[in-house]
Amino acid sequence: MEEQAVRCIVSGRVQGVWYRVTTARQAEQLSLRGSARNLADGAVEVIAAGDPEAIAQLCAWLWDGPSGARVTGVEVQEWNDPVAPGFRIL
């Protein structure tokens, strides 16, 4: 199976609304590896690796996020660095 990895920068009201936790749950349901962390500018960085279809589903979900989130942008970039097993909240 061919894998893909991406780095997504999610902007808007995405900190303090359980965005990282719900992203981790969504990624785990899709069997993706990676991480989610808050950035100093108020955005959330999501690294995801795995099946390209699952990554596409996660990237679409990132636009919604949890009910308290107000996403204004999702920037998706190719990611070439190794991604550890599991999905971590940093």
Description of the structure:
The protein is α+β, with helices and mostly antiparallel strands and 90 residues long. The chain has one domain (4-89): Alpha-Beta Plaits (2-Layer Sandwich). It is 24% helix and 39% strand. It contains 2 helices and 5 strands. It has helices at 19-29, 52-62; strands spanning 4-13, 33-38, 44-50, 70-78, 87-89. Strands 4-1-3-2-5 form a 5-stranded mixed β-sheet, covered by helices on one side. Strand 2 and strand 3 (44-50) form a beta hairpin. The longest helix is centred in the N-terminal third of the chain and has 11 residues, at 19-29. It is globular. The chain starts with a strand and ends with a strand.
**Cα radius of gyration in angstroms:** 12 Å
The assigned CATH architecture is: 2-Layer Sandwich
Shape: globular
Q: Which consecutive residue ranges, at least 5 long each, have pLDDT under 50?
A: none
Features:
90 residues, alpha+beta, Alpha-Beta Plaits, five-stranded mixed β-sheet, globular
Short account of what is shown:
The chain is of the alpha+beta class. It is 24% helix and 39% strand.
Write the layout of secondary structure elements.
Elements: E1 4-13, H1 19-29, E2 33-38, E3 44-50, H2 52-62, E4 70-78, E5 87-89
Parallel strand pairs: 2-5
Antiparallel strand pairs: 1-3, 1-4, 2-3
